[in-house]
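Q: What would this chain look like folded?
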Amino acid sequence: MPLSTPDLCDAHPDKVRVLEPIFRAYGARASFAGEVVTVRCFEDNSRVKELAAEAGNGRVMVVDGGGSLRRALLGDLIAANMVENGWQGIVINGCVRDVEALNELDLGIRALASIPLKTERRGRGEIAVMLRIADAEVRPGDWLYADRTGIVVSAERLPIP
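A: My prediction, written as structure tokens:
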């Protein structure tokens, strides 16, 4: 049965946190789910690139870019690396670039917007930290579920109704 965030919310109302509907969908994968790996960075995607090079093992990267609309934290090369390494998706409180190429990749991508400017890599950022994005807490090890309707997170893996 396909993933449905409304069905998850109905079946597990006391176990889900819903992210505000501020994200746009990119990537060829309409729905995705997986264990969360968190990154906090601001206009520097060094940590995103590092994690994308690791085995994703079906996980989802959640990136708090501080909501910056000035620089893209994900482009086609890093996203292609994520696909190659088995990541399910990425949610970015910030921007992406190379939208045409991203939309061809089998990866779930949610971001605030797109912009053609890349970041400068200065080696800054934190991995495995608690984030607060879109009015919801997202922690390392949470489970994230995303479809065209929305994004929900849970402290535990939920059965898909």
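The two ends are 8 Å apart (CA to CA).
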